[in-house]
Design brief:
Elements lengths: L21 H11 L20 H6 L13
Protein name: Tr-type G domain-containing protein
Organism: marine sediment metagenome
GO biological process, one term: ribosome disassembly
Length: about 70
C-alpha cells in the first residue's frame, strides 16, 4: 500500500450546474492519471461514477460519488 505525505494530499470537489461536464471531467482525470483504462461515455452508460440504473437511464448524475487518483 502506498504511503502518502499528508502535506501533499489534496481533496477536491467537482461542483457545477447540470450538464456542465462534471462526469466527463471526472472520467478524463481518472483516465489521464491511469486509474481507468478507457474513457466512459454518458450516452453509452458506462461512466465510472454513474452506476445507478436510474442515472444511466436518465443520463444524469443523481448520487454523489467518490473517486481517487494519484497525480
Amino acid at each position: 500500500m502506498t504511503k502518502y505525505d499528508i502535506n501533499k494530499v489534496r481533496n477536491i470537489a467537482l461542483v457545477g450546474h447540470g450538464d456542465s461536464g462534471k462526469t466527463s471531467l471526472t472520467e478524463a482525470l481518472l483516465y489521464d492519471s491511469g486509474m481507468i483504462t478507457r474513457l466512459g461515455n454518458i450516452k453509452q452508460g458506462n461512466t465510472t461514477t454513474d452506476y445507478d440504473p436510474r442515472e444511466i437511464k436518465k443520463e444524469i448524475t443523481i448520487n454523489s460519488s467518490l473517486a481517487y487518483l494519484d497525480w
